[in-house]
Structures are given as structure tokens and as C-alpha cells.
Specification:
- GO terms for molecular function: actin filament binding.
- The structure is a single chain.
- The protein folds into 2 domains: 150 residues, no CATH class; 107 residues, no CATH class.
- The chain has a 4-stranded antiparallel β-sheet with strand order 4-5-6-7, with no helix packed on it. A 4-stranded antiparallel β-sheet has the order 8-9-10-11, with no helix packed on it.
- It starts with a strand and ends with a helix.
- It has 4 helices and 18 strands.
- The mean pLDDT is 90.
- The radius of gyration is 20 Å and the shape is globular.
- By secondary structure, the protein is mainly β.
């Protein structure tokens, strides 16, 4: 386990625990993270996603000048398989990597058949990773299947107001249809919920919610420990927690149980 930090010196700093001295020592970042080479700007966000049983990783980082780099790296040899970059001209406020296909593990007490095991392994091989980049001036951008397409397959997330500053991103299946939605928070005190329109092949704003102060961060977590996640919104003046409607949750649960028994 290491701490990965960035500073105003435009450098990456890695601190690893030294068990002998009970302290943390700084190590050379290029020895372990070759994708961080020759960065000339202050890095504002780093996102890392490990795949293939941690044999590889996808790293994306953005800087205060809008520069974004995406790399696929072998963790054993430090070889860079994929190296793409672009520039958004303005401060990168958030980077998000997420898998398009959810891999839901069957509980250990349920014995899986050989077919189900093969199917699970196939899902692992067909991993699709998407990346969302938010910046402070131009609209946020969605990059699809970055492992195969790099940064060539992209869609723009249109805004309601051209002068708003997007500050944060969260990805969650808000309506329980099995497909993730994108939630953006901005300086105009708005939560924007985007859903992908398959017919038009673009992301459209499905819903907008307002709070009373600019939004800093959004997290979709189960804070009440009832098995259903809530949307937690951190703002300049406090914390908001949006819960799902109980009747809607009950309806969705009954639908899924019915499908489970009828299959």
C-alpha cells in the first residue's frame, strides 16, 4: 500500500511504509508508475483501475491546464500498452473510471454450475471500462470502451447552462434498470442526471435537482445500512442525503424476485 500525492512542483510523489522504521519513505514514481513520465503541469486528479487480477491497470489523470493522459500499464513489467492524451484547455475537476458491465459475484454458499462458472470468466474477459472527464469551462466528456478505443469513442454531456462549472461526477444505477446513469454536480447548485438514449446514441439529461449552495462532491453509498444506497451530496453549506422512494424500491424488489422465480 502506498500514498500517491501530487504537488505544485508538477511532480508525483509516492510514499511507501517502512515497517522497520515505522515511517513512510518517498520512492521514485517512475520505477513503479511509468505512465507519470514528463508531466509539466500541476495534476488535479488521478484515477486508477486495476484489471486482469491486478496484472494491469488503467490510469487516467488530469491537470490544471486541461491536459489529460490515459494509459494501460502492465504491473509486472511496467510496459505501457496504451497511451492516449488530449487537452480540454481548462482545469480538470474530476476523472471517473467505471466498468460498463457489472460483475455480480454469486454468494459463496450457492454452488455454481460449470456453465455459470464459464459465463463468469467470460464476463471478466469482456471487461469494458468507460471514463468521464469533467472540467471547469467546456462540457464534460464520456469516453467509451477505453481499453479498446482509447479516447477515440467519445460523447459530450450537454449542459443546461453554458457558464456553470462542473465540479464532480458519480456513476450509479439510480432507476434500477440495470444500466448506469451519470450524475454531475456544478457551481449553479444543480444535480444533473444523465441517461443514455440508445435510439439517438447520446447522453441526455433525464432529471435536474437543485440545492442551496455549490456542490463539491457526490457519493452513492448505503449510509443507513438498509441495503439500499443513498445519494450523498457535499455542498459549501452542508450535506444532503437523497433517499429512494420506499414504495418504488418495494415494487422493483418484487419485480426482480418474480423474475428470479419464473426463470
Amino acid at each position: 500500500m502506498v500514498f500517491l500525492l501530487t504537488g505544485s512542483d508538477c511532480q508525483f510523489h509516492i510514499f511507501r511504509e517502512d515497517s522497520n522504521s515505522n515511517s513512510y519513505q518517498e520512492i521514485n514514481p517512475e520505477e513503479y508508475f511509468p505512465e507519470f513520465y514528463k508531466c509539466t503541469d500541476i495534476v488535479t486528479w488521478i484515477e486508477i483501475y486495476y484489471l486482469n487480477s491486478k496484472k494491469e491497470r488503467l490510469t487516467v489523470f488530469g491537470t490544471e491546464t486541461g491536459y489529460v493522459r490515459l494509459c494501460r500499464v502492465c504491473t509486472k513489467t511496467n510496459a505501457i500498452f496504451l497511451n492516449h492524451s488530449t487537452n480540454f484547455i481548462s482545469y480538470v475537476s474530476h476523472v471517473k473510471i467505471y466498468p460498463q458491465n457489472k460483475i455480480i459475484r454469486k454468494p459463496t454458499f450457492v454452488k455454481a454450475s460449470k456453465y455459470q462458472s464459464d459465463q463468469a470468466n467470460g464476463n471478466e474477459e469482456k471487461l469494458i471500462l468507460n471514463v468521464i472527464i469533467a472540467n471547469t469551462s467546456v462540457p464534460s466528456v464520456f469516453f467509451g470502451d477505453c481499453l479498446n478505443c482509447g479516447m477515440d469513442n467519445y460523447k459530450t454531456l450537454r449542459r443546461c447552462d453554458p457558464v456553470s462549472v462542473t465540479s464532480c461526477i458519480e456513476v450509479a444505477d439510480i432507476d434500477f434498470d440495470g444500466c448506469d446513469e451519470i450524475v454531475l454536480g456544478n457551481s449553479r447548485q444543480e444535480l444533473l442526471l444523465y441517461k443514455f438514449n440508445n435510439n439517438e446514441e447520446e447522453w441526455r439529461i433525464m432529471e435536474t435537482k437543485n440545492v442551496v449552495s455549490p456542490i463539491f462532491r457526490i457519493k452513492y453509498v448505503d449510509v443507513t445500512a438498509d441495503g439500499v444506497k443513498e445519494l450523498v451530496v457535499f455542498t459549501m453549506k452542508g450535506l444532503y442525503i437523497f433517499q429512494h422512494d420506499a414504495e418504488y424500491i418495494q415494487k422493483k424488489l418484487e419485480e426482480k424476485v418474480h423474475k428470479l422465480y419464473s426463470s
